[in-house]
Fold each of these.
Amino acid sequence: MFGDAILLTRDDQSKVSAFFTQVYGWMAVALGISGAVAWFTVSSGLLEKIMATNPGLLNVAMIGELVLVIALSFLVRRLSWPLAALMFLVYSVFTGFTLSIVFLVYTSASIVSVFLMTSGIFAALAMYGLFTERNLAPMGGFLIMSLLGMVVASLVNLFLHSPMIDWMMTYGGIIIFSGLVAYDNQKLKAMCLMSPGEPLGSLAIFGALTLYLDFINLFLRFLSLFGKRR
């Protein structure tokens, strides 16, 4: 059962190891693509041209990004793994494009330092989720409901422009996504062990997407706190 402490056989350990090698491999590729697209969009001057001539294009990209991630979240495990992988990589391109704006707000040095800090914290939380004997499943429901509440509050704040709500969303987001990193790793481990035979590639893409979203959201909240503005 998800979250219960179990003694893994050698075959189970090999299965989990191979599965997470795929998961983190795909996640690393997606993060690399997003970073490269964001850097190119800024360094080529493309973002400034878009902001000057057609700023609505960013909104279109954000809508496309949202539609794609919703579709992926619901369909990824039903798709063939090549199609799931393609959609995931396309999503990472959209994300890199929309995130390129952070290069206009924060210095490159602070973006790199916050990225490295986020990577270290993410790794520690992931290791905890993978190896703890504590059942994190009860925490998952609370985290998901809290995340939904945060989304609603963020939408409301589009009209209120409240600094207090922004502050709450930043610190609350760090707590929520930190918890989700540990929870999602434990959940994915359980899904791997419960899958018949070798885990399907689409399950690895689902895991990579889940952890990619956790990482990006955690990174953005740390950046808002520790990033040095231009």
Amino acid sequence: MSNENGKIKKMMIILSKATIENVYAAFVLANGARMEGIEAELFCTFFGLEAIHTKKLEHLHVATVGNPAMHIPTMVGGLPGMEAFATHMMKKEMDKIDMPDVKEFLEILVASGVKIWACKLAMDMFHFKKEDLYEGVEAVITVGDFYHRAEGEGVHLLFI
């Protein structure tokens, strides 16, 4: 029996949605893992690919419709301009605490050793090419490849 009982050695984070709140949650968790000396990998799939797509990563929004944390009725969240307003307000609050923008945060993650992967199925489905992605993305891999990377003791998978 190992004397490192329950120690987290690697975080495997799956990012499936590219709303600002989901992207920053994944990035903060990956960065926090690295700051604690824990390996971290980020697998971007489906709409999570927008967080690493060079033409989309600077244009992420806050989800105002169907987001119970917004504390506004769905009908109000769907009004024209509401999503843009909520996004503006969120970015303003993030600026106050010196939160890096998405591209700068990606640079920080890669520099700290976070491995970033793109899902082959989602890439094919959305007709994206590797050249469309942020340069720090390691590769386009299959779900099976991702699971093989998650093998071993002390590895945790987290779906966002």
Amino acid sequence: MDIIDRIGETITQVGNAAGQKAKDVSEYAKLTSELHSLEKKQQDLFLELGKRFFEENMDSKDEAVEALKEIAADVDHLKEQIAGLKGGDSCPSCGAVVPKGSKFCNSCGAKLSIFEEEETTEEE
């Protein structure tokens, strides 16, 4: 009976150790998921903060601000070229291609300034 008791104790110990490992793995997965979620929020906030800083300092002669303005102009130009190839216009808010003559962007819902300018000219 002594050997059976020892086997039983060993099985219990192994079961307890396996249960603890399962809890540890579960806790690790939970913490890792929470960490990634917080890092994503942090990254989004840094991006938003940088965007606000850029918008507030567009008149600055800072090298990084100047570089971003050049890149933004290049991005707008490329979006317009792509929209032209697709037979439409580029939305100034989100850059999506919208059919020519559209009043609103199909992607973000923004009112298109091209159409607004035409309406203003007609009213005058």
